[in-house]
């Protein structure tokens, strides 16, 4: 999950990708529940209700993604990026 979070931050936010300009990244990797995750929230509203949750499963490489952004056109991009990063690639190809 840490690598996914770092790639999301680098590729979606530090690169100033316009598809993610309205959002901020909120990592929650230190989870006592065994489900580390990162959230996308409205930009500048870190305490707001998450628009996207990317959640790992302890002892597994599987992740769950859910939230309102998964019903938006950007969901195809999110899904493709996460799949690429999970396979070991670190690129930011859109």
Question: Any overview of this molecule?
Answer:
With 94 residues, this protein is an alpha+beta fold. The protein has one domain. Helix content is 28%, strand content 22%. It has helices at residues 2-14, 74-86, and strands at 23-28, 37-42, 52-56, 63-66. The protein has a 4-stranded antiparallel beta sheet, with helices on one face.
Can I get a quick summary?
The chain has 94 residues and is of the alpha+beta class.
Kindly list the characteristics that best describe this protein.
single chain, 94 residues, alpha+beta, four-stranded antiparallel sheet, 4 strands, 22% strand, globular
Task: Give the topology.
Elements: H1 2-14, E1 23-28, E2 37-42, E3 52-56, E4 63-66, H2 74-86
Antiparallel strand pairs: 1-2, 2-3, 3-4
Helix pairs in contact: 1-2
Main sheet characteristics: 4 strands, antiparallel
Number of domains: 1
Which percent range fits the helix content? 25-40%
Q: Ranges with pLDDT <50 over ≥5 residues?
A: none
- Please give the number of β-strands: 4
- With strands numbered from the N-terminus, the spatial order across the biggest sheet is 1-2-3-4
* Number of helical elements: 2
Rounded to the nearest angstrom, the radius of gyration is 12 Å
Question: Approximately how much beta-strand content do the residues carry?
Answer: 15-25%
The average pLDDT score comes to: 91
Structural class: alpha+beta
The dominant shape is: globular
Sequence of secondary-structure elements: HEEEEH
N-to-C span: 20 Å
Q: What quaternary form is this? A: single chain
């Amino acid at each position: 999950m840490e690598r996914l979070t770092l790639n999301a931050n680098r590729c979606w936010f530090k690169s100033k990708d316009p598809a993610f300009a309205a959002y901020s990244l909120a990592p929650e990797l230190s989870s006592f529940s065994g489900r580390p995750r990162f959230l996308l929230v409205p930009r500048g509203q870190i305490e707001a209700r998450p628009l996207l949750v990317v959640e790992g499963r302890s002892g597994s490489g599987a992740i769950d993604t859910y939230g309102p952004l998964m019903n938006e056109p950007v969901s195809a991009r999110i899904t493709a990026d996460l799949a690429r990063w999970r396979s070991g690639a670190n690129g930011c190809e859109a």
